[in-house]
């Protein structure tokens, strides 16, 4: 399923990979005549898709998975997440949590993720070490944390440690990641905007996630968050609006005309009782939408395939149209369209010659996926992420018939348990 | 996780099974002193739960999986399902489809299902052959099908072939399964009611699934479906209302005072653009709710664990309350409460001495389930059904470390493919 051209399913085809990039997509018989490969792999009961792109995650928060459930957004932040972050956020926690997240994501067919968390330089290093692609968001917030003291410090550390270092990296791109409009003053946003324009990187921000966020913004500033970003010069093609649940038709139009992208995180939105983003309305208006998992503290899995399924299901009921967001269209949101909002659709997101060989192979020979009338339907509506058998990033075979090749499983599990014990002790 | 007492998680415990029933639930050390078992199994990284109960399914429809997606309910029935059923519904299709469904369900930790389909005697035989527990619904509808000619014939065949034969079967119970209020006249419902009272079996019916169903009923009869069932004497403790999406607060109250049960099928309801049942309102009113997958033509998987997760997620957003339907409570809906609406909570649905040893064991040692702060949260929000390692029904080990012991995998896949080819040819 090359994704581009849209709706295409090629049978008995092969993908030739040279130097980490896709050299050709052609009938198997022709491939055998044309290439003398050093490695030849056959997966006859499988579908091959572009590696899934996770449009929004806080990778390190895997270590907070299941720590605070069944709470609305505000209580979840104030009682669940923030006290633990204040005590434990550190380079060590971010490295271990990000490693667990990358293991989980690779095993689920995800080859690229857009991250937003403290110690972004550690996230970037860990991604490079484990050879996954990532857009690293450097945090910006008006309060001091373990990583930085004030907005100038956030911006400087982000610029020095991340944006400069990864300006031309094959795996890593970067963006600014202000937490939300609540978290930054107009002055801070203006400093951020100047720097983002100068470095030409996207700005990823939680936006219109909950009704209370919008109400609080109106009370504090007289403006809804999208309106305020517009006034501050941030409503443009560099904006990656995360969530965008509570938006009016006029705001959808403004996001569309600005060329902003939306990261849709359906599980997290349901779980925090925020609602469901109007995905069909976004697509009808021409807004590019990617699918994200959000962090494991609010999801609680980093499983893009199940988010694709949920996005397709929810869109039908939310728009009262059983034909809304077909399986085929939903899959595109988690591959090429997600790549587009990360500004990387020229190099990933579809199986086309010249793009990086970021690929995932999925086994359909399971009870829950048989029989197969339509492989796309089967993949979206009747497949679980454990059926991902193989994953490649830039041609490197990272998941080989269910086994991760760059991950020390026992070490990850041991460190996860240690963090869990320390954090659980602290909370008692 | 015994489910009863509610909220309990026992660590380092054992379950002793004698003659297919649970003899004791006790600390492992004590178990070693008390019992000299013929078989002793240890699963140290796992949780043990009662086998999941699928409150509503059309098992044989696995053979129609993915045949008609992205359609609203009416078009899905008229264009997708009914033409194929008219051509292919047969004892052979039902046997093969049910076998595939049982394989899929056992592998996903489901030990009991409530079925509604043609050739129910074949469904019952197949369930007994493969040693899964089931409530077999015998269909009733005012039009002739391959299985019966008219309502008298449906009722007679149901009574003779199913209800009489399985009156005291350890694995099989039975119910009547009229398709919907649209599908039966008042006269037919009255005949059905007399017989259901006489045999003392439940009545499982699709009820208030879509808005158009309710509107059509008002147009045709002047009454909403629940009102009509009430007038016909069918709104009572024997009623298993499937879906119940479009219900008023007054109707919720009537279902509660009647003692009727509800089968909640969240994926199917979303996919057919029907909406989401008000589960929290049902529970607050005292209505017992079980969770079902519905058939694979509208879901498209028979995966109760993922339905539990979705039910918990949706309830939060639908009721605008992040605390609505906790993970713990949601799990109960798919075990003890589902058993209750099938009238089998005295013998299954929890891990308690005297009940059948219908059990499922789930491996949490996966990237997506680590670390573990709260095993219930992990099971509901961060576990996929492929993590089910072992399943027992009445003590018989049907899934042994991921391998089904009573299923001929190659034969099932071969027959599924044959049906798929015949059906796909017919549709071209």
Structure description:
Two copies of one chain form a homodimer. Chain A has a domain at 52-341: TIM Barrel. The relative contact order of chain A is 0.17. In chain A, 40% of the residues lie in helices and 19% in strands. In chain A, strand 14 and strand 15 form a beta hairpin. The first copy, chain A, is globular. In chain A, helix 5 (151-163) packs parallel to helix 6 and helix 13 packs across helix 15. Chain A has 16 helices and 15 strands. Chain A has helices at residues 28-34, 73-88, 91-107, 120-130, 151-163, 186-199, 211-221, 225-231, 249-258, 266-271, 279-285, 304-318, 327-333, 336-341, 375-381, 409-427, and strands at 13-18, 21-27, 46-50, 52-57, 110-116, 133-140, 172-178, 203-207, 239-243, 261-264, 288-291, 359-363, 388-393, 396-400, 403-404. Chain A is α/β, with parallel strands linked by helices and 428 residues long. Chains A and B meet through helix 2, helix 3, helix 10, helix 12 and helix 15 of A and helix 2, helix 3, helix 10, helix 12 and helix 15 of B.
Features:
homodimer, 428 residues, TIM Barrel, five-stranded antiparallel sheet, 19% strand
The H-level CATH homologous superfamily of the domain at 52-341 in chain A, spelled out, is Metal-dependent hydrolases
Oligomer: homodimer
Q: CATH class of the domain at 52-341 in chain A, please? A: Alpha Beta
Mean pLDDT of chain A, as a whole number? 97
Major sheet strand order of chain A: 3-12-13-14-15
State the largest interface: A-B, 71 and 72 residues
**% residues in beta strands of chain A:** 15-25%
CA gyration radius of chain A, whole angstroms: 21 Å
Please give the number of β-strands of chain A: 15
Structural class of chain A: alpha/beta
Q: Please report the distance between the alpha carbons of the first and last residues of chain A.
A: 49 Å
Relative helix content of chain A: 40-55%
* Count of DSSP-assigned helices of chain A: 16
Unreliable stretches of chain A? none
The best one-word shape of chain A is globular
Sheet having the most strands of chain A: 5 strands, antiparallel
Q: Any idea of the CATH topology of the domain at 52-341 in chain A?
A: TIM Barrel
The CATH architecture of the domain at 52-341 in chain A comes to Alpha-Beta Barrel
């Amino acid at each position: 399923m090359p994704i581009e051209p849209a709706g295409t399913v090629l049978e008995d085809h092969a993908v030739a990979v040279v130097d980490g990039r896709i050299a050709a997509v052609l009938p198997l018989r022709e491939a055998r005549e044309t290439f003398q490969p050093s490695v030849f792999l056959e997966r006859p009961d499988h579908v091959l898709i572009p590696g899934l792109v996770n449009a929004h995650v806080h990778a390190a928060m895997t270590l907070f998975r299941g720590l605070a459930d069944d709470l609305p957004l505000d209580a979840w932040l104030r009682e669940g997440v923030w006290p633990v972050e204040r005590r434990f956020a550190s380079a060590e926690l971010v490295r271990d949590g990000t490693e667990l997240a990358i293991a989980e994501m690779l095993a689920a067919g995800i080859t690229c993720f857009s991250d937003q968390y403290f110690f972004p330089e550690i996230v970037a290093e860990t991604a490079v070490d484990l050879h996954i692609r990532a857009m690293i968001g450097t945090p910006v917030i008006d309060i001091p944390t373990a990583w930085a003291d004030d907005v100038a410090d956030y911006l400087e550390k982000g610029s020095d440690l991340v944006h400069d270092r990864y300006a031309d990296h094959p795996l890593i791109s970067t963006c600014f990641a202000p937490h939300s409009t609540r978290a930054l003053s107009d002055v801070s946003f203006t400093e951020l905007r100047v720097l983002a324009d100068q470095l030409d990187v996207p700005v990823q921000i939680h936006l219109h996630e909950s009704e209370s966020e919008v109400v609080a913004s109106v009370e504090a500033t007289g403006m809804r968050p999208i309106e305020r970003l517009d006034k501050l010069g941030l409503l443009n093609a560099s904006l990656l609006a995360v969530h965008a649940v509570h938006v009016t038709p006029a705001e959808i139009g403004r996001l569309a005309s600005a060329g902003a992208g939306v990261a849709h995180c359906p599980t997290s939105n349901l779980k925090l009782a925020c609602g469901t983003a109007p995905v069909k309305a976004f697509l009808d208006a021409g807004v590019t939408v990617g699918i994200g998992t959000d962090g494991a503290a609010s999801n609680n899995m980093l499983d893009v395939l199940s988010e694709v399924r949920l996005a397709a299901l929810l869109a039908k009921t939310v728009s009262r149209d059983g034909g809304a967001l077909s399986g085929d269209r939903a899959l595109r949101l988690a591959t090429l369209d997600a790549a587009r909002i990360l500004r990387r659709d020229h190099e990933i997101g579809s199986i086309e010659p010249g793009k990086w060989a970021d690929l995932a192979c999925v086994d359909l020979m399971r009870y829950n996926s048989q029989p197969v009338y339509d492989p796309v339907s089967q993949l979206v509506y009747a497949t679980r992420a454990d059926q991902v058998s193989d994953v490649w990033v830039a041609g490197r075979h990272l998941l080989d018939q269910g086994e991760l090749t760059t991950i020390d499983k026992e070490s990850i599990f041991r460190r996860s348990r240690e963090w869990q014990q320390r954090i659980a002790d602290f909370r008692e």
